[in-house]
Design a protein that fits this description.
434 Repressor (Amino-terminal Domain), mainly alpha
């Protein structure tokens, strides 16, 4: 799953939207939306990404998680962890908690 779709999924969950609700918001069928979010589709649909970002009140760039960290300068062990599924799960969990806490503070 691409970084964009990992972050979009985390933010969708944090905001309490189901895949079906998101699909409706972006004008897509739930099955098709699920295909993108699950990483089964390798096709880049920039228009869909922009609609998803808009529906989640963010930007494509934020959801892409563009980073200035140069992974080649990090110790090999750290680099391997950052590229692992474990780090992806940790990032999604942390981002979901951040968004949930942020939403609570806005109430």
């Amino acid at each position: 799953m691409s970084q964009f779709w990992q972050n979009a999924r985390a933010k969708r969950i944090a905001l309490g939207y189901s895949q079906e609700e998101m699909a409706k918001k972006v004008g897509f069928h739930q099955t098709g939306y699920s295909y993108f979010e699950s990483g089964k589709s390798k096709r880049i649909d920039r228009d869909l990404m922009e609609r998803v970002a808009l529906a989640l009140d963010t930007t494509v760039r934020e959801l892409e998680g563009t980073s200035d960290i140069n992974l080649r300068r990090l110790p090999e062990e750290v680099q391997r962890w950052l590229e692992s599924e474990e780090s992806n799960d940790y990032i999604v969990e942390a981002y979901t908690k951040y968004i949930t806490d942020k939403m609570k503070s806005l109430r």
